[in-house]
Amino acid sequence: MSNEELGLKVEEALSKLESGELSISKLDQFLGNPNLAALARRLFLERKYNVKLTSIASTVIDFVGVVGHNIENPIGAVQVPLGVVGPLRVQGDYAKGDFYVPIATTEGALVAGVNRGVKAITASGGARSKVIYDGMTRAPIIWTPSVSEAYSLAAWIKGNIDKLKEEVRSVTRHGELIDVQTYVVGNIIWPRFVFRTGDAMGMNIATIASDRICRHIDENYKGEHRCVSVSGNVCSDKKPSQINKLLGRGKYVVAEAIVKRDVLRDVMRTTPEDVDFINKSKNLLGNAVAGSPSFSGHVANIIAAIFIATGQDVAQVVESSMAFTWTEVRDEDLYISVTLPSLEVGTVGGGTWLPTQREALELLGVAGGGNPPGTNALKFAEIVAATALAGELNLLASQVTGELAKAHERLGRGRG
Description:
The protein is built from 16 helices and 10 strands. The longest helix is centred in the last third of the chain and has 26 residues, at 375-400. Strands 1, 2, 3, 4, 5, 6, 7, 8, 9 and 10 form a 10-stranded mixed β-sheet that branches. The model has no long low-confidence stretch (mean pLDDT 95). It is an alpha+beta fold. The chain is 46% helix and 21% strand. Helix 5 crosses helix 15 and helix 11 packs across helix 15 (375-400). It folds into 3 domains: 1-79, no CATH class; 82-134 and 240-411, Alpha-Beta Complex (3-hydroxy-3-methylglutaryl-coenzyme A Reductase, Chain A, domain 2), CATH 3.90.770.10; 140-229, Alpha-Beta Plaits (2-Layer Sandwich), CATH 3.30.70.420.
């Protein structure tokens, strides 16, 4: 089709949109090309509301292949400024070396602050990171008529775990059922299935596999029951929860460092004693008084910024940023750690294959599947945790010295 013919086809689509004969969700089918459909939607909105969407139109994304996987009804893309912090030295089981970490944010002073924490940690020898646990969960909700039936079903599930593992292998090459934790309240049962998901964050794998397990239960368990939903919120996804904080979901990862006294003095103009005191009074006692489920300063800032940069599921910042920040004074130096019990990250699937996000992952050396499978996601988790550690260190130090407000006044004031 020539450019002239394409133009006429788009004008026809616009006319039908304006008359109500065509909906914006049917444009891909009508025009036969997601990029043309995005253009038509954008032009329709520009005319209807007398606005210009030229910046939204400026994108490197080819919507062929993206529509139906990452977005529906696209009109373009939103750009977020991207910076880097580094070099951050990480000594992990999978991440070994110096890294420049991409940070996507609109908050002035965030990159500069995290980078100061990175400088202090690297000058002290680097951060040590370790993944303690790796398992993505999904917990269907199953109705039974009585607690006795719920108890019997829980025992049946435990006794048939090997068969359930076979069922999972029949629907995914990348997922593996590794455990099931059953919870009974009254006559209701939640089997919380735990999966190893390779380099994927794993929610799709866990959902598809859990659905297959539910069908297997329906076909083979003879007691009265009904699978109400493939997700019963004991998983727990996109919500802060005690179960994720205690048992872990995704990657349970710890990053720690011993920051030298002279480094704290020269880089951050403070002492180990002052950082330790403000951490325990602010992050531990203050959060306890507030009833917060997270005992940290601003881990969500760093998690969100890395998630946006690397194509992670941004809604999972909710549970991924639950954290414990701990400090001690040791032999005149500062020990600091950040524990992330529910860091949900992947290097394949979701938005990780989009062009700018994939480049950000390539910058870290973790794009795509690892060799062996799963190692890229584990390496990525160790880097994320070490970056969060740097952010916590800087925030604590800047509040000790009264520099937080000054930094935001200097770097973070907005326009307009």
